[in-house]
């Protein structure tokens, strides 16, 4: 009796368009991905591991619903694909500047006193919107060291939709020798 109730109404209601819904949360949205996902489960090629045939056949009930929902969100999926391609093309045409801290090792914990004092002075020179948005923690304000013993302090700040990165580079005596400022991964002159 319970099996008949599950198969007649409740279980199909839980399956309605679930392939489509999983596509809505995926970063690589593709048109009709819900139908493709359902069909790959039915045929056993989904990569989700082994599933008994009766369970896989239940996904046949979801295919028509996924067709309907996939068709309803088709314009959104096409727009998402277009935006993703445009973003990739913009990265190809304007690649981010190279990271100046490649090869440096993160040094979490206590900062040298001279760097801490210089950092506090530097923060005072930032524009008010960046000072207000600054969050001081081990990830957003990070100390680095290179093989010669020189240090660098990387400061990451998110202001609205703009990410700022300030890299303060010090010599072996912890005297600041260089400042690099990045906006959205591009060096600001």
Report on the structure:
With 189 residues, the protein is α+β, with helices and mostly antiparallel strands. It has 2 domains: 2-93; 105-188. Helices cover 47% and strands 19% of the residues. The chain has a 6-stranded antiparallel beta sheet with strand order 1-2-3-4-5-6. The radius of gyration is 26 Å and the shape is elongated. The N and C termini lie far apart (74 Å). The model is unreliable at 5-14 (pLDDT under 50).
Which short descriptors sum up this protein?
6 strands; 6-stranded antiparallel β-sheet; single chain; 8 helices; 2 domains; 189 residues; alpha+beta
Strands across the major sheet, in which order?
1-2-3-4-5-6
How do the helices and strands follow one another from N- to C-terminus? HHHHHHEHHEEEEE
Uncertain segments are 5-14
**What percentage of amino acids are in beta strands?**
15-25%
Overall spatial form: elongated
Spatial gap, N to C terminus: 74 Å
Total helical segments = 8
Mean pLDDT: 82
Main sheet makeup: 6 strands, antiparallel
- Class of secondary structure makeup: alpha+beta
User: Radius of gyration, Cα only, in angstroms?
Assistant: 26 Å
Outline of this structure?
With 189 residues, the chain is an alpha+beta fold. It is built from eight helices and six strands, in the order H-H-H-H-H-H-E-H-H-E-E-E-E-E.
Layout of strands and helices, then pairs:
Layout: H1 2-15, H2 18-24, H3 33-43, H4 53-58, H5 62-72, H6 74-93, E1 105-106, H7 113-125, H8 128-133, E2 141-145, E3 151-159, E4 162-170, E5 176-183, E6 186-188
Antiparallel strand pairs: 1-2, 2-3, 3-4, 4-5, 5-6
């Amino acid at each position: 009796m319970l099996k008949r109730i599950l198969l007649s109404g409740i279980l199909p209601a839980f399956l309605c368009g679930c392939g489509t819904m999983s596509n809505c949360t995926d970063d690589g949205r593709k048109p009709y991905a819900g139908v493709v996902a359902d069909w790959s489960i039915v045929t056993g090629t989904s990569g989700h591991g082994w599933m008994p045939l009766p369970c896989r056949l239940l996904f046949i009930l979801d295919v028509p619903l996924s067709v309907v929902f996939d068709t309803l969100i088709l314009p959104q999926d096409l727009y998402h694909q277009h935006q993703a391609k445009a973003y990739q093309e913009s990265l190809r045409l304007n690649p981010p500047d190279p990271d100046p801290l490649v090869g440096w090792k993160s040094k979490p914990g206590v900062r040298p006193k001279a760097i801490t004092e210089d950092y506090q002075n530097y923060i005072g020179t930032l524009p008010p919107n960046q000072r207000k948005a600054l969050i001081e923690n081990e990830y957003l304000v990070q100390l680095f060291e290179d093989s010669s013993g020189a240090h660098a302090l990387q400061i990451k700040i998110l202001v609205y939709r703009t990410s700022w990165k300030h890299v303060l580079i010090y010599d072996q005596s912890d005297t600041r020798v260089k400042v690099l400022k990045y906006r959205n991964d591009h060096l600001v002159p």
